[in-house]
Amino acid sequence: MTENADRDNASFFARGWVVASPMLERFGLFRARRRLVAGLSGTVLEVGAGSGVTFEHYPPEVTRVVAVEPDPHLRAHARRRAARVAGEGARMSIEVVDAVAEALPLADGEADAVVFGLVLCTVPDVPAALAEARRVLRRGPQDCPGAQERPGAQERPGAEDRPGGEIRVLEHVRAPGRLGRFTDRIAPAWGHVGGGCRPNQDTEALLAEAGFDVAALQTRPFPPMVPLMPMLTGASRPLGTYAP
């Protein structure tokens, strides 16, 4: 498939998603999105913002949202929704930018959280996207070798003593057993009409391979409309330490 055909296919999917999304929200995604961002604060990078349906769910402790959306149709919808949320009195700033998951538009350690909501199934290079997420996350004391041994480190509570940033995920994943084998068979056709979506992706394994702690992630049933793909949900932090 040519690059132009890929772009046209994604645009076709984007138009369909804008129509279908409100119905899916009523079937359970509304509550799932609220859980996705509950408890966040500071600067949040949202990857694959789509039409901006998550914006209204951010808690008041979030002061800044940088929302990445490469599809121009979805990006236009997201910008209108961001303006609507601002007009309703939200104090956070929302910037919707044209960028991709593999090249996130924040500096190292700038984000308190990175949010992935129904997007990793379409990202061409998931390991690169997760490496970028880890790069932009705020580092905690456990991420900086020798930080706790510095003179006075234990006596100076403050921002530098907070845990490192986290990612939040709401991603459909391959179902187990017979349903999973069925999604394996339909994956090529599904991706063709679904903007490159991979219905049989093992996102939890990809997160673990990228160095994220997956112990607290849970798999929940998807709303009844699409029972083939359960949802992987929860929060995760990077394991290990960053290079000094």
TrEMBL record:
<feature type="region of interest" description="Disordered">
    <location>
        <begin position="141"/>
        <end position="165"/>
    </location>
</feature>
<dbReference type="Pfam" id="PF08241">
    <property type="entry name" value="Methyltransf_11"/>
</dbReference>
<protein>
    <submittedName>
        <fullName>Class I SAM-dependent methyltransferase</fullName>
        <ecNumber>2.1.1.-</ecNumber>
    </submittedName>
</protein>
<dbReference type="InterPro" id="IPR029063">
    <property type="entry name" value="SAM-dependent_MTases_sf"/>
</dbReference>
<dbReference type="GO" id="GO:0008168">
    <property type="term" value="F:methyltransferase activity"/>
</dbReference>
<keyword id="KW-0808">Transferase</keyword>
<feature type="domain" description="Methyltransferase type 11">
    <location>
        <begin position="45"/>
        <end position="140"/>
    </location>
</feature>
<keyword id="KW-0489">Methyltransferase</keyword>
<dbReference type="InterPro" id="IPR013216">
    <property type="entry name" value="Methyltransf_11"/>
</dbReference>
<dbReference type="InterPro" id="IPR052356">
    <property type="entry name" value="Thiol_S-MT"/>
</dbReference>
<dbReference type="GO" id="GO:0032259">
    <property type="term" value="P:methylation"/>
</dbReference>
